[in-house]
Design brief:
InterPro entries: NAD(P)-bd_dom_sf (IPR036291), Sc_DH/Rdtase_CS (IPR020904), SDR_fam (IPR002347). Keywords: Oxidoreductase. This is SDR family oxidoreductase. Belongs to the short-chain dehydrogenases/reductases (SDR) family. With 273 residues, this protein is α/β, with parallel strands linked by helices. It has one domain: NAD(P)-binding Rossmann-like Domain (Rossmann fold, 3-Layer(aba) Sandwich). The protein has helices spanning 33-44, 56-66, 78-92, 114-142, 163-183, 201-204, 207-213, 221-233, 245-254, 256-272; strands at residues 24-27, 48-51, 69-70, 97-100, 145-150, 188-193, 238-239. Strands 3-2-1-4-5-6-7 form a seven-stranded parallel β-sheet, sandwiched between helices. Mean pLDDT is 90; it is low at 1-17.
Amino acid sequence: MSEARADGAGAGPVGNGADFAGTGAVVTGAGRGIGAALARALAAAGARVVVNDLDADAARAVAAETGGHAVPGDAAGEDGVAALIDAARDRLGAIDLYCANAGVATTGGPDAAPDAWELAWQVNVLAHVRATRLLLPDWLERGTGRYLATVSAAGLLTMLGSAPYSVTKHGALAYAEWLSATYRHRGLKVHALCPQGVRTRMLDGTGAHGQVLLAPTAIEPAEAAAEALRGMAADEFLILPHPGTAGQYAARATTPDRWLRGMNRLQQEIEAR
């Protein structure tokens, strides 16, 4: 995709049947978990990776491991996103692939604190808007670009016990759908990575709901990353690492009352534990 890289060497395309060799890639939230696994998988596939995380030491460690370049900092706020993209372009020459992986999992419902709701909106939704606002002009001019949003299956279904997470992940999915519907004919490839449970610190913080709903079928971050690369290579919009997700999504869409009754039964079972 990229026509040039900062050191003058060529870069490979990530179009149909994506070959990631030489691709200039940015991965946010890449200090651990799915983000770190994405950085490792992309580097192993030959991509040149910029590793971003709020945890500067974690970002530098993953960058050192993958031969990438660490750009620690915020990947959600206006200033942080702009600084990340500027630094990545300085390093890569052009950004071919942006993996918007950073996210926050806030528990609770209407009782969740206003600042918890605000943080979820900023990181899980507006970070995507701010990144694409800066990425799209170059991508549309070149007629090529690739955007991977780590959405979570909560964006397709819901996550009991966590209204801010569920609502904002629905928003992230809706924005990814809008991007694809609007710019697909101009060369933009958009992907929504929607795993269920993944063995990360985020899963550890989901409490009883996560242990009942997610932990039994949780996969390793490397498995989610491998599915992400496979799905991008196949130009799939929805990338579903868990085989049962598609059926659950179809049931939600076609028999919503039955699906909601089933989810409510699960909620009652968790409350009775």
